[in-house]
């Protein structure tokens, strides 16, 4: 007989869903009955995640890059940072899936179902999910199903509740090529976190480079703005960067892989528990794990999974008090306001931030782990005018 009742259902087997299952597997809860539901099995390298940390991770064995240096580039100022105890890490999506999935699949207590999720609901006692016409129930349901096009689709929770007077809705959208060239144009020891040396066109735009070797790298063109570009424009910007900044003609490189992504950047609340009376927890981007002002999500998902598992173990329920001080949401709000109204100001702000602060202070600030004193130092190091304007805008809206 087909099993339909579980301890936990995980809706969406992407980064957050698989991370949660993997964290559970490493814990005393390893033998809980778990169902993971996704549209389809993960067989493609659909994204590359980067994050910085000064700790070891569950994924150290599959890191494609783990760098001790990082470069910031702009027309005015270029600098290579030594990261000290920190590492800038890169994981390819496919390596993450191929590492976690076989370990989950060999567990008799973990099942997978593939299909479009038709409904998710619950009450105070149970949560349930419907897929392929079948209903599955669980004590707790973890939902990471989020439309990446975010603010533009009717299925998006944000579209239904969008409040443009109160909140900011920016998209981080990017396209990248993994390119091969016979010319050794990349430094394999130094990824480029930001190259702002491209036309800004009234928005925040940069390229980042993740080198695999002197002749191979992921080169990614990124924009923070309210609307997506026509598809062909991403390629035009990338090709122009490759030609003008990397000095490679079209004949001198080939594209091994492409990647396109959209990360929602918003201060619209994305609570982990939108319905207090239901046994449903939102995780991943849907649960507000994408940092509003940067889009960095991977490491926050890992921190979230750690807390969820601890909470399940100690209190038999997944919710835990926020580990992030509330003031960071205020900082994010100001940056989002600048991104929305004065996107071209981001470049000088970032240049001053990286120029005038040690890299570990910047990392801690962006990870929301810095002290108030460090935050003050960092704020004094960047141009104040855009922030004062943003403060005025956000306090009068
Ligand atoms: C190309 C790309 C690069 C990124 N790079 C970085 C980075 O370098 N660093 C960083 O910190 N963050 C990065 N991010 C942001 C973030 O880490 C990722 O988006 C991450 O995958 C979010 O995890 P998630 O589980 O919330 O969503 P996903 O990983 O997208 O997982 C959601 C899952 O839900 C499934 N699903 C959705 N709806 C349904 C449905 N109706 N029925 C069945 N299944 C459904 C999807 O198939 C998917 O597998 C990147 C994002 C993208 C897109």
Major pleated sheet:
7 strands, mixed
Structural class: alpha/beta
CATH superfamily annotation of the largest domain: FAD/NAD(P)-binding domain
User: Average pLDDT value?
Assistant: 93
Distance separating the two termini: 57 Å
Query: What is the CATH class of the largest domain?
Result: Alpha Beta
Could you say which overall geometry the principal axes of the C-alpha atoms support?
globular
Measured as a percent range, the helix fraction is 25-40%
Q: In the CATH classification, which architecture of the largest domain applies?
A: 3-Layer(bba) Sandwich
Number of domains: 3
Count every helix, treating DSSP H or I runs of 4 or more residues as helices.
10
Number of strands: 17
Q: Give me the Rg, rounded.
A: 21 Å
Q: List the uncertain runs.
A: none
> Which hetero ligands occur in this complex?
flavin-adenine dinucleotide
CATH topology of the largest domain: FAD/NAD(P)-binding domain
Walkthrough of the structure:
The longest helix has 18 residues, at 298-315. The strands form three sheets. Strands 1, 2, 8, 9, 10, 11 and 17 form a seven-stranded mixed sheet that branches. Strands 6-5-13-14-15-12-16 form a seven-stranded mixed sheet, with helices on both faces. It has a three-stranded antiparallel sheet with strand order 3-7-4. It has three domains: 5-64 and 92-160 and 268-315, FAD/NAD(P)-binding domain, CATH 3.50.50; 169-266, D-Amino Acid Oxidase, subunit A, domain 2 (D-Amino Acid Oxidase, Chain A, domain 2, 2-Layer Sandwich); 327-396. It has 397 residues and is α/β, with parallel strands linked by helices. It is 29% helix and 29% strand. It has helices at residues 15-25, 93-105, 157-161, 231-244, 298-315, 327-341, 346-356, 359-366, 372-380, 385-396; strands at 5-11, 34-38, 48-53, 65-67, 69-73, 79-82, 87-92, 110-114, 117-122, 127-131, 134-143, 169-180, 192-195, 204-213, 216-225, 254-266, 280-282. The protein has ten helices and 17 strands. The structure holds flavin-adenine dinucleotide (FAD). Flavin-adenine dinucleotide (FAD) is lined by residues 12-17, 37-39, 47, 49-51, 116-117, 144-146, 259, 261, 263, 284-286, 295-298. Flavin-adenine dinucleotide binds next to helix 1, strand 2, strand 3 and strand 16.
């Amino acid at each position: 007989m087909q099993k339909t009742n579980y301890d936990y259902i995980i809706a969406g087997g992407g980064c957050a869903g698989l991370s949660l299952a993997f964290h559970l597997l490493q814990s005393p809860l390893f033998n809980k009955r778990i169902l993971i539901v996704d549209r389809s099995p993960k067989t493609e390298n659909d994204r590359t995640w980067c994050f910085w940390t000064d700790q070891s991770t569950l994924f150290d064995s599959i890191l494609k890059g783990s760098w001790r240096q990082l470069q910031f580039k702009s027309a005015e100022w270029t600098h290579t940072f030594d990261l000290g105890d920190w590492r800038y890490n890169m994981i390819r999506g496919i390596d993450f899936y191929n590492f976690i999935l076989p370990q989950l699949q060999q567990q008799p207590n973990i099942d997978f179902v593939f299909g479009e999720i038709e409904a998710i609901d619950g009450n105070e006692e149970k949560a349930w999910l419907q897929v392929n016409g079948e209903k599955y129930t669980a004590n707790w349901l973890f939902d990471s199903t989020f439309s990446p096009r975010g603010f533009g689709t009717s299925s998006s929770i944000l579209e239904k509740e969008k409040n443009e007077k109160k909140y900011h809705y920016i998209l981080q959208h990017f396209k990248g090529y993994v390119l091969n060239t016979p010319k050794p144009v990349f430094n394999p020891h130094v990824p480029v976190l930001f190259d702002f040396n491209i036309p800004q066109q009234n928005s925040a735009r940069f390229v980042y480079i993740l080198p695999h070797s002197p002749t191979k790298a992921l080169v990614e063109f990124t924009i923070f703005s309210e609307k997506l570009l026509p598809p062909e424009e991403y390629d035009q910007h990338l090709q122009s960067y490759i030609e003008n900044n990397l000095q490679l003609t079209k004949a001198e490189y080939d594209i091994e892989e492409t990647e396109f992504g959209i990360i929602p950047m918003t201060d619209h609340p994305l609570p982990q528990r939108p319905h207090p009376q239901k046994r449903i927890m939102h995780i991943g981007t849907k649960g507000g794990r994408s940092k509003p002002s940067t889009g960095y999500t991977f490491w926050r998902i890992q921190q979230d999974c750690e807390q969820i598992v601890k909470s399940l173990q100690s209190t038999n329920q997944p919710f835990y008090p926020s580990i992030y001080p509330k003031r960071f949401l205020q900082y994010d709000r100001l940056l989002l306001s600048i991104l929305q109204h004065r996107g071209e100001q981001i470049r000088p702000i970032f240049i001053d931030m990286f120029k005038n602060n040690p890299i570990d202070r910047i990392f801690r600030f962006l990870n929301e782990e810095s002290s108030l004193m460090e935050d003050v130092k960092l704020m004094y190091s960047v141009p104040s005018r855009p922030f004062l304007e943003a403060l005025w805008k956000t306090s009068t809206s």
